[in-house]
Amino acid sequence: MAKKPGRKIITFDWAIKTVLRDKANFDVLEGFLSALLLRPITILDMLEGESNQRDDADKYNRVDLLAKTGDGAKKDGELIIVEVQYLPEKAYLKRLAYGTSKTIVEHLKLGEPYDKVKKVYSVSLVYFDVSREYYLLAVKRFPDIVRDDLDEWIYAFKNNEVPDEFSAPGINALKDKFDYLKMIEIERRKFDAHLDVTRSAWGTITHAREEGIEEGIQMGREEGMKQGAHERSLEIARALKQSGMSSAQIAEIAGISLSELEKL
């Protein structure tokens, strides 16, 4: 039975820059993190992250939120970094480790003992292949097979839509608050421009990869032709050695060095 089309929603990277920073929309992120961490998550506050820019031209490829969790009465809750990364980055895992470490250090006051170090979770939604050194959610690799609450969330992130039958915690809030059709005209234009920038960046990368592959194929052809010509020269030299010609003459005619001729 074919899955019915779901309600179209805005992309998660755009939501992190905009609607998810509003306390009224914390329930969306709480639902996703609860499904991921397998326990109820309550977000007390959104702390300012390094790249929480609202302007699409400012670090569009990397956006993140720093959420402070707790039970409502607990002031020193855990910290959760939520990051969306669309484009590949050479030192991504190292930057991830640096960002997490920096967050830990920044939330330990001068002179405080190490037992005051806050627990920091780093959650990344990546749209490219990564190594298995970290627990990352490789969205592009998700097979669109929904078995549990987390699968529903990843399906929504990958396809930018929420089917009506989804029931994971917070998923209805996601469907309602990320609804593309409910955006006011100016916000919709900003979001559409953001998508154009992202698609253009992917197009640039794809074009560069295709050019690189074509150059590699061409280099392979040229290298193969050179290798074939050299092999023919060696065959000629072997045949000329039977004629009694001098080594210098054979090397000159065949176009090889005397050292190569001696090895034949």
UniProtKB/TrEMBL annotation:
Top-level taxon in the UniProt lineage: Bacteria
UniProt cross-references to Pfam families, sorted A to Z: PDDEXK_2
Name under which the protein is recorded: Transposase (putative) YhgA-like domain-containing protein
